[in-house]
TrEMBL record, chains A, B:
<keyword id="KW-0274">FAD</keyword>
<dbReference type="InterPro" id="IPR016166">
    <property type="entry name" value="FAD-bd_PCMH"/>
</dbReference>
<dbReference type="GO" id="GO:0004458">
    <property type="term" value="F:D-lactate dehydrogenase (cytochrome) activity"/>
</dbReference>
<dbReference type="Pfam" id="PF01565">
    <property type="entry name" value="FAD_binding_4"/>
</dbReference>
<feature type="domain" description="FAD-binding PCMH-type">
    <location>
        <begin position="33"/>
        <end position="211"/>
    </location>
</feature>
<dbReference type="InterPro" id="IPR004113">
    <property type="entry name" value="FAD-bd_oxidored_4_C"/>
</dbReference>
<dbReference type="InterPro" id="IPR016169">
    <property type="entry name" value="FAD-bd_PCMH_sub2"/>
</dbReference>
<dbReference type="GO" id="GO:0008720">
    <property type="term" value="F:D-lactate dehydrogenase (NAD+) activity"/>
</dbReference>
<dbReference type="GO" id="GO:0071949">
    <property type="term" value="F:FAD binding"/>
</dbReference>
<dbReference type="Pfam" id="PF02913">
    <property type="entry name" value="FAD-oxidase_C"/>
</dbReference>
<dbReference type="InterPro" id="IPR016171">
    <property type="entry name" value="Vanillyl_alc_oxidase_C-sub2"/>
</dbReference>
<dbReference type="InterPro" id="IPR016164">
    <property type="entry name" value="FAD-linked_Oxase-like_C"/>
</dbReference>
<keyword id="KW-0809">Transit peptide</keyword>
<dbReference type="InterPro" id="IPR006094">
    <property type="entry name" value="Oxid_FAD_bind_N"/>
</dbReference>
<keyword id="KW-0285">Flavoprotein</keyword>
<keyword id="KW-0560">Oxidoreductase</keyword>
<dbReference type="InterPro" id="IPR036318">
    <property type="entry name" value="FAD-bd_PCMH-like_sf"/>
</dbReference>
Length: 444, 444
């Protein structure tokens, strides 16, 4: 392996120090996926990314692209001896408020983008739990979702165009700067959620949204999670389409500083003046105890703050155990069946279970854990039952966290052999030497 | 070619009558793309579609899939001696209003779908000019857009899942029934807009939207198109994000029954009670003469009705000439430059020019025509300049009509050789025998 070229080309932007590299080989998951890397490189220009790919092909050395590595399935972990490519320094932001478009580097944090947009009354609506540290490039690569998915969908709905470098070192300009775009096959969406396995993103053209004029939200407490999710179904059946509908189960609520009750956070965007009407409608529909109300966009977003601490609650609950955060979605009407089934499976296998997530779009994050000394067997059995349940309910085992290393076998069952074989051929087409984030997404 | 199997398998659902076939070989474009077909077949089940593909491969006979053939670029035309596959009879509709999802056959018309949804207060927001006859399968294959693209985007934003039969006869289940979905590579969006060249759609799972509580709209007349599109820019710069912003130039307005003035139709969705405020805001922003106002969803949609007659206006204007309807999009801020440039190009080449379209998302449909006896040379020169102009403004030569036969050379210049070569390999992967709608999308 020719490290000399890396040293000459990148100077102090190629870091070989093992202690630094050790910070970059992991993502936010708790399983041990990582190996030691030969170093971390920080490109600043697309041309450098092209040269890195060519170097990787010549040296048959894997590249592990990274934003801020907040993924939870090993997506961004360096799982083989290779080079971590950090996009931290490719962080330009160009906003056109009339066009409703931002052209950004992959290393821009979602939070930074939103700060740049605030002066125009615009925002980027995709709002994953990791929004304060997640980068645009990472969010695209992982097809991130989050808190406002009920109204705004996920990354796949907000990327208009991309520049990517494939595993053959080709630069592809994909998509358009306009909202409508029909120039050939739509390869943009093939790259969204491909976890850096088909190409490295060097620039993204994002669609923006106007900040809604206002919103109204309530926090309601429930005795049991079943009634809580039944109420989400009632809200939808009553033709209220929330901006967000989020929840925490009672133990998690306590861990993030709320009362130890199952908490439903539900908000709707409205025109100024319509807040009261929505709050009254929600009070009429919800059987839980409404503990807080918010009128206005900022107030509604603030009401959601405790929900944002779900991840910290899960970490606390797991103690020193190995935390496994799952990420299923079911059709909204099936949420009650999903909650009942998940609880039964956890009881059957004797594993701890915390529930929380984005019920407004049917997305639940069951969290469980095991002590290292006892091993993962019971958790694995629980996950097998979970996957079976979700399939039966017409859902998916991967809503927004992606496949990474963790979900490859589950994905295999869900996708079926036919779709998988085409996906394998796509990987060969875009990355024939398997240098881009190898070992992710596709099962072995 | 073994027609015996077709006759046995499909009985009277295989129509060989040349007069009937002649009705199916064309789409709505005016150029002469079509050849005579060996017949039309009407499958009712996915398994029949699989068998048709296998038959096509064995007999090296192209299949030309069709909804209602309302495409405008030859997308659905039978351009070689082959078999037209009409999806008219695969027209199931299953709605789940709580999940906000419909599972439909490809042959369902968008209008029929919306009729089925009305009772739930839901609708399918993609609204192409051909909405009364266009089918879901055709709209997906063509990545249709339309009147409400400013707010709701295009088909690519509303397809959650697909079942497709590839050119290798494989059935692929793609995507999910849930709004969030990250199970492997996103092949759904690769098929949206692929014009039947990668696979035949046998079922689609669509995302639905709640009918907005209310809307407000105005029709304003302008002396010149330049001021009209400048006002669209002003509206966006004033942080009003319209549901629709549509226009007709003065000659087209007259042809569809309005005053002979440039007409801007602009609407915003709101909560009930906020209509007046929006209308006043629009009155304050627009420099045109506000001739009509509408408050309420239905009233706002009715206000748009004359705009829906653009196509008929264009046909009338062209007289017996060969009508060429183009389909460009530019960033919204560039609309004034686009209008000025298009007019200059038409004057330069001495071709007639009508303007109309979806200015709310930057999408203009320049229409021109030529008499058969004079030939297309001047129109071709105009189109060459149009493409150059659009590229310079950061736009695209194909916003929503697709590539078909007509735009293949224009697409080539816009996409560049690198992206095109990957697209060719994708075509080989999904349709190695080139039996699915050959001669479309990709340039020769």
């Amino acid at each position: 392996m020719d490290l000399g070229w890396l040293r000459r080309r990148f100077g102090d932007r190629f870091v070989e120090d093992g202690a630094v590299a050790a910070l970059y080989v992991r993502d936010a998951s708790f399983m041990e996926f990582s190996r030691s890397a030969i170093g971390v490189v920080f490109p600043e220009e697309e041309e450098e990314v092209v040269e890195l790919v060519r170097w990787a092909v010549e040296n048959r050395t894997p590249l592990f692209p990274q934003g801020c590595a907040t993924s939870l399935s090993g997506n961004a972990a360096a799982t083989a001896p290779g080079l971590v490519v950090s996009f931290e320094r490719m962080a330009k932001v160009e906003v056109d408020p009339v066009d409703g478009v931002a052209v950004v580097g992959p290393g821009v944090k979602l939070e930074e983008l939103n700060l740049a947009l605030a002066r125009y009354g615009l925002f980027f609506p995709v709002d994953p739990g990791s929004v304060k540290s997640a980068t645009v490039g990472g969010a695209i690569a992982n097809g991130a979702g989050g808190m406002r998915g009920a109204k705004y969908g996920t990354m796949k709905d907000w990327v208009l165009g991309l520049r990517v470098v494939t595993g053959r070192g080709d630069v592809l300009r994909l998509g358009c700067r306009t909202y409508k775009c029909r120039n050939g096959y739509d390869l943009v969406r093939l790259f969204v959620g491909s976890e850096g396995t088909l190409g490295l993103i060097t620039e993204a053209t994002l669609k923006l949204a106007p900040v809604p004029e206002s919103a109204a939200a309530v926090l309601a407490y429930y005795r049991d999670v079943e009634t809580l999710v039944e109420d989400v179904v009632r809200v939808r059946a009553s033709r209220v389409w929330p901006l967000f509908a989020e929840f925490l189960d009672a133990p998690t609520s306590a861990l993030v500083g709320l009362e130890e009750k199952n908490a439903l956070f539900i908000g709707v965007d409205v025109n100024a003046g319509a807040e009261e009407k929505v709050i009254n409608k929600l009070r009429g529909l919800l059987r839980g105890e409404v503990a807080l109300e918010a009128a206005g966009w900022e107030a509604s977003m603030r009401l959601l703050e405790p929900r944002r601490r779900l991840f910290y609650g899960q970490i606390k609950a797991a103690g020193g155990g190995v935390l496994v955060i799952e990420d299923v979605a079911v059709p909204i009407s099936k949420l009650p069946d999903a909650v009942r089934g998940l609880k039964a499976a956890a009881a059957r296998h004797g594993v701890p279970l915390l529930l929380g997530g984005h019920v407004g779009d049917g997305n639940i994050h069951p969290a469980t854990w095991y002590r290292r000394e006892e091993g993962p067997a019971r958790v694995e059995n629980f996950i097998r039952d979970m996957a079976e349940l979700v399939a039966k309910l017409g859902g998916t085992i991967s809503a927004e966290h992606g496949i990474g290393v963790l979900k490859r076998e589950l994905a295999k069952a869900e996708l079926g052999e036919a779709a998988l074989s085409y996906m394998r051929e796509l990987k060969r087409l875009f990355d024939p030497y398997n240098v881009l984030n190898p070992g992710k997404v596709l099962p072995g």
